[in-house]
Amino acid sequence: MGSPWLRELDKYDVVQLSLTSLSGAVRHVTLPSHKLKTILQSSGTVRFGSSGIPADSLLYDLKSSVGDAEVDLTSLRPLPWLCGDGRTAGGAMCHVSPASPRAAAIEQVARLKDEFGLTIRSAFEAEYMIFEQDETTPFNNVLIEPYGRSDNMSGREATLLDTCHSLEGAGLPVETFMTEFAAAQFELTFRPEEGVASADTIMVMKDGVKSNLRRNGMMPTYMACPLESGHANGFHLNHSLWTADGANAFIDVTDPINLSELARHWIAGLVHHAPALTALLCPTVNCYRRLADVLCPQSATWGEENRRAFLRLKTERKNVYLENRLPSSASNPYLDLAATLAAGMDGLARKLTCPVQIDPEAPPIHKSIDAAVSALEQDEVLTQALGEDLVKGFINISKKAMKARDMGHSSHQFHRSVYFHAL
Question: Mean pLDDT throughout 359-377?
Answer without folding.
Answer: 95
